[in-house]
Design goal:
The chain has about 260 residues and is mainly alpha-helical. The protein has 14 helices and 3 strands. Helix 7 packs across helix 10 (about 185-200) and helix 8 runs antiparallel to helix 9. The radius of gyration is 22 Å and the shape is globular.
Length: about 260
């Protein structure tokens, strides 16, 4: 009996040792996956995934297309982009009917804004803050960097040898709408987003207040805050980083903002 137990322990030790050794090997590097994912292939993949992820979200959520809502979001984005030398025409922004308080970037320079987030923002400046943050993710290439990190070797091979499929794309979309970015990426997006706001002469303090309000909420619909942790810390370093000498301008008229909010 003792021999059986000893052999069992030896077998477990051997298996664990083999597993641990394999874990230390950079298979992505050995198999050339990293090189491929850093090549022209990644650009084609971003376009394909972006289109398929968008189709996936549109299949599950009604798109808001009324002229007022689209015009206001377009105006806010244009103000941020113009002041920061960003080609707004390279972006595609979609408003979707969903009660979650969430907004997120997709591959191929796409931005999704849920109606639940618009409902919870009490000023155009706060909404601009969220948009500037997500725009920073897009501009810094965080979207594909995060997917490359998150998808792992298995999904990478599925893509390389079998192409994309709806199930894989759905999972990648879930990652981007939930927990895609590292803390370092989030802080970088916060600070770059803050720069975007200040160059556009948009007061960032309402965005910082928005973070604080979401941090104090326990509702499960507040997805954006659950996917962007450490909000109290973020609020503090945003406030500390604000250029107090900036002269801010009104983003849109109070009347237009009120009319816009009535639809949400």
């Amino acid at each position: 009996m003792s021999k059986v137990i000893t052999r069992g322990f030896l077998l477990v030790a051997i298996l664990f040792g083999s597993w641990f050794s394999l874990r230390q090997v950079n298979w992505m590097e050995i198999l050339g996956v990293n090189a491929l994912m850093d090549s022209e292939f990644i650009k084609e993949l971003e376009t394909e995934w972006g289109e398929m992820m968008l189709d996936n979200f549109l299949a599950k959520n009604q798109q808001v297309t009324d002229s007022l809502s689209v015009a206001v979001i377009d105006s806010l984005a244009a103000k941020v982009c113009k002041a920061n030398g960003i080609d707004k025409n390279s972006l595609n922004i979609y408003i979707l009917e969903n009660s979650e308080v969430n907004a997120f970037a997709l591959p191929n320079r796409q931005l999704i804004i849920y109606s639940g987030l618009i409902e919870q923002t009490d000023s155009p400046e706060a909404l601009c803050g969220v948009m500037a943050h997500e725009l920073a993710h897009i501009q810094k290439g965080h979207v594909m960097q995060s997917l490359k990190r998150e998808i792992g070797l298995g999904v990478t091979f599925k893509v390389l040898v079998g192409g994309s499929n709806f199930k894989v794309i759905g999972e990648l979309g879930r990652i981007l709408s939930s927990s895609a970015f590292s803390r370092q990426m989030e802080q970088e997006a916060d600070l770059i987003g803050l720069q975007y706001l200040q160059k556009a002469k948009i007061d960032p303090k309402p965005f910082a207040s928005f973070l604080g309000n979401l941090e104090n909420s326990t509702s499960e619909t507040f997805k954006w805050i659950s996917t962007h942790p450490y909000s109290e810390d973020r609020k503090e370093y945003i406030l500390k980083s604000i250029n107090q000498k900036s002269n801010y301008e009104q983003v849109i008229s109070d009347k237009l903002w009120k009319e816009f909010k009535e639809d949400f």
